[in-house]
Predict the 3D structure of the following.
Amino acid sequence: MRRLRLNFCFASSLASAGTVLLVVAAAIAQQPIGVPVPPLANGPFLFDTAEQHKIRVSVVAKGLEHPWSLAFLPDGSMLVAERPGRLRLVRDATGDAKLDPGPIAGVPTVRLIGNSGLMDVALHPRFAENKLVYLTYNKPGPNKQIATALARGRLENGALTDVKDIFVADWLPEDANGYNSRIAFGRDGMIYVSNGASNSDSAQDPKTHRGKIMRLRDDGTVPPDNPFVGHPGYRPEIYSLGHRNTLGLIVHPVTGALWNNENGPNGGDEINVILPGRNYGWPVASYGRKYEGPRVSEVPWREGIEQPIVFWVPSIAVAGMAVYTGDRFPAWKNNVFVGSMRTGEIPGTGHLERIVFNDKTEELRRETMLTELHQRIREVRQGPDGLLYLLTDEDAGALLRIEPAP
Amino acid sequence: MRRLRLNFCFASSLASAGTVLLVVAAAIAQQPIGVPVPPLANGPFLFDTAEQHKIRVSVVAKGLEHPWSLAFLPDGSMLVAERPGRLRLVRDATGDAKLDPGPIAGVPTVRLIGNSGLMDVALHPRFAENKLVYLTYNKPGPNKQIATALARGRLENGALTDVKDIFVADWLPEDANGYNSRIAFGRDGMIYVSNGASNSDSAQDPKTHRGKIMRLRDDGTVPPDNPFVGHPGYRPEIYSLGHRNTLGLIVHPVTGALWNNENGPNGGDEINVILPGRNYGWPVASYGRKYEGPRVSEVPWREGIEQPIVFWVPSIAVAGMAVYTGDRFPAWKNNVFVGSMRTGEIPGTGHLERIVFNDKTEELRRETMLTELHQRIREVRQGPDGLLYLLTDEDAGALLRIEPAP
């Protein structure tokens, strides 16, 4: 019996030959949480939205395995980093979009653990001249240790050459958690690199890179004007501290400010404006609860901790972020888009979320979209064509394109 | 052209002859927020849910105008209060369910304003003996003033007789807001009555009934053991203070504790355990923002304020509450259900929400359901048949029944 999600269908055809699932009666206590989600159909999918109204979501490329991040190249093609350690090329990403079957050579060996492996990919601001591509990844070390590493190489003739680690964070035991890292180039020419902390207290510890956002020169060295340079007991790379798991890190295209988003555990996802030397509170001040139930902190705020500009309770497992500045979606101008991988700790509840701010960057409303696709959305970017591009964090992952529909 | 919400359909037939909407191209700036939601179809609707799996939602009665609350009678029929001021009878509500065309006589004249008019309906715990039914409503007064009133009468031979106001709160000008009131009988035999405050500061003012939960004897007089009896400057009816708009008020069927839920403005909906004499913070400590953007309070907590056990950011416009104690949905035992009328300030986003707690009443996860119906859900109750009954707060409102499906 084909087990469909019975309560919706799409304007276009349903999933092509799906898996035949045998529905076995199981004791209620043994039934898993979450609705078995059928594989993403071929699309395209038409949605009606609150202010921009009709949009079309197309599956631009399939067969990506837990794609983590994307970066557009000047010629309109796109790099996609796959968690297992492959860098892929989508040719003509804003047009016919063809995924090259073979990965781009030169990516370092990654260590897969939890939700990470190969993570972010970003181009140097002057890529057109220097061909530099930056990657973050879990670097395997001796005794099964792992470190977050920032590497860069030159993308030439379809391969990465001269690849070097320019920064390697602390080595950690393999059962440490919170391996995640995103990067963003600031208008100051520096590269900002996040490093996760998950449920450890290390985000408050100035002697470790865990749970921090770091600021480096584009060669990985420490800029002398970093906020803690010369402070005893502080790693000089640290720019801000008290972060849990940052899965979105961008420079706001209008203001130039550095924004992150980070996941709380059970509640407490945040968007923050990142300022030098500030403490963002994890885990001493959080809006969330531990997975087992107790509040992370007795109260959600304390003196000296920066408040988020947006937070979520329950969590949406926020990941990816883009500020829409294009002209293809007039009703979305300057709105912020984030991905959601899972809402309220219930599987199958990923979606795209849109946040509207007033001109003081105070939020007015939030719109949840694409829930019917049930995909974990990990990445959101605006393309050079002024459309939105998303990645789904699934075994059978996909690149999605959103465009307005008449 | 029939403007359907294109991205879903239901296992049963779609909406019967829907309204034909002419799609007129309008300047983007003039397009309203929210997706035009087609009228609720006839159903039934099949949904797959995270832990209880297949459920069927039936439209048990239609043609209710902004139904606000419901109460089951011992014979299995049901009283439904309609906002415009009518009390209705649904015969055999757990079976064939027929809505009596004529309202029940005897309801006082109500003043319609904002989202309220006739509000809550509840039976005296010993209704079987005394036939007493309690109502809250907006009482019209001289000079267009309005007061929240608690009335009771005897339900005999299909009519309310001997109807008297047993408690009338402060008279307010008609442009005051926050007219809402729910009632619950406690295990101590007292009646708990909430009174809204919306965006005024009066919830902190002990000299007014606004923004309070009050505790009265079943004849409306003040119990001598109320927490502020004898405190100068305090209205003696007050049980707890600092509430914004309480749209859910129940006695927890397992613990006997009094629980409320209340709406924040733009974020900050809460569930609270109500204890005597305590301050729940509105508007000096809130998780929400004002509709225009600024935070309601600089920080969301302060000393002396009770923390909610559950809160929502963004808001879901929470209303109605039931703790499931039946046996028809084994996976939902002791879960809390609340209605949502609107999420993130976007119209058309009402739903049913289920909250799972551990045995310390710490929340573990939250499941959003019935989003595809796009109905404002204002009331949730468990029926004597162990099923769930909901009311939709719509011009064309309905009574919904949820049952497990094979």
Remarks:
- The two ends of chain B are 37 Å apart (CA to CA).
- Chain B touches chain A through 58 residues (CB under 8 Å).
- Residues 40-404 of chain B form a domain with the Neuraminidase fold (CATH 2.120.10.30).
- Chain B has a mean pLDDT of 91.
